[in-house]
Amino acid sequence: MDVKTLIIGAGAAGMMCAAHAGSGVLLVDHAKAPGEKIRISGGGRCNFTNLYAGPENFISQNPHFCKSALKRYTQWDFLDLVNAYGIAWHEKTLGQLFCDNSAKDIIAMLRAEMEKAGAQLWLRAEVGEITHDGSSFCVRVTKDGKTTNVTARNLVVASGGKSIPKMGATGLGYRVAAQFGLDVTDIRPGLVPLTFSDDRFKAIAGTTTHGTVAAGGPAFEEALLFTHRGLSGPAILQASSYWQEGDSICINLCPDGTLQEWLRTQRQVAGRKAVTTHLAQHLPNRLVGLLAEEMQITGNLGDQSDAALDELCTLLANWRLRPSGSEGYRTAEVTLGGVDTAGLSSSTMAAKTQAGLYFIGECVDVTGWLGGYNFQWAWSSGWAAGQAI
Ligand code: FDA
Prior knowledge:
The protein has 389 residues and is of the alpha+beta class. It has helices spanning 12-20, 36-40, 67-72, 75-84, 104-117, 172-179, 234-240, 259-269, 275-279, 285-294, 306-317, 373-388, and strands spanning 2-8, 25-28, 47-50, 58-59, 89-91, 96-99, 120-122, 125-132, 137-143, 146-157, 188-190, 194-195, 208-214, 220-226, 230-232, 249-252, 319-321, 325-326, 334-336, 357-359, 367-368.
C-alpha cells in the first residue's frame, strides 16, 4: 500500500497533524481508540490549552526550539477551532481552559477535522520494521492478523512518551530517532508525585495546603497534597519536572509573607496560646502537628522573642525535604526529554538527517508545565509538521 504520509500515533499531535497534512494520509495506532490520553485528561474534561502559553512554560535543552511552532499555531488558533465546533469551555484557574462537558468533545472535533482532510485511521495496528530505501519509508503494519507493507514519502512519528505504559505508551519514537541517526536526550518522568522512603507523611495523608514549591527551577504557588507515599498536588507536580534524583525541594508554607507580622500582633493580643494553636489558623491542624515535631515548635506565643519568631517563619518559608524518588512513569503525566531538538527543524519538525521524517508532540524534547501547555505543544508541533508536508 502506498500513501503520501504515514503518521504513527493517533494521539493529540498525530491527529492534529493528520488534519493539516493534506491528502494521502494514513494514521496508525495500536490502541483501540484515538486520543486516549485526551479522553482521560483534566479529570475527563481536558485542559486543552492555556491562555498564557508561551515558550517560558516549556522545558527543553534548547528553550528556543518551541518558539516558532507556538508562535505560528497559538492557543488562540486552537480556541478558534474549539469555538467553531461549538464546544463549551471555561477557564478554571491560571489561564487553564477546560471543556464544560467532556474531553470526548475534543476527540470528536479532531476526528471530524481528520475526516474533512480525508485521512485514513487504522486502529489496533501494530508497527513493525521501519526501513527507508532512499526515496520512501517502508513500514510493516499488522492489523487484524494481516501484515501490510506501507510505503510513504513522509513518516511522522507522534507516538508520545513513556508515561502511563498501561495506556499504550511505548517509547517507539526514541527507537525510530536512534535508527535514523538522531540523538535522544536523557528521559525521565515529569509532572509526577514525589516519594519518600520513610513514612513521614503517612499520618497526615490526604491533607492539603497551599504553598510554593521549588526544585531547582521556578517556584510554583499552588496546592500541595500529602500522600501515604509522599507529596503530590499541582505545586509538587510542577516542581517535579525540575527535580533531579538526590536533590532536595524547598517548600514555602506561608508564601504571602504576612505570617511574621501576624504572629507579632497575636503575641500581644493572645500571647498565652500555644504557637501551634496560632499556626493552625494558617495551616491545617494535622500539618501543624507534624511541623511541631519536625521543627520542635513548642511553648506559648507570648514567650517567643522577635528572633525566635523570625527563625520560625524562616523555617516555614524554607522547609527543605529530600524526596527519595518519584512515582515514575506509572503515574507521570509526561516524559521529560526525548528526541534531541538539535536534530530537528524548529519550523517544520523535520529531521535534519533524514528527508521526510518528522517528530511531533511529547516524543520531542519539549515538555510543558501542568495546565494545558502539553496539549498546546501537541497542537502547535502537529500543525507545523502538517503545514510542511
Ligand atoms: P499521546 O501519548 O497523546 O499519543 C501517542 C499515541 O501513540 C497513542 O495513541 C499511543 O497509543 C500511540 N502509540 C505509542 N506507541 C505506539 C506504537 N508502538 N505503535 C502504534 N501506536 C503507538 N496535558 C495537557 O495539556 N492538559 C491536560 O489536561 C493533561 N492531562 C493529562 C492527564 C494524564 C493522566 C496524562 C497521562 C497526561 C495528561 N496531559 C495533559 C499530557 C498530555 O496527555 C500529553 O502531553 C499529550 O497527550 C501528548 O500528545 P502526543 O500526541 O504527543 O502523545
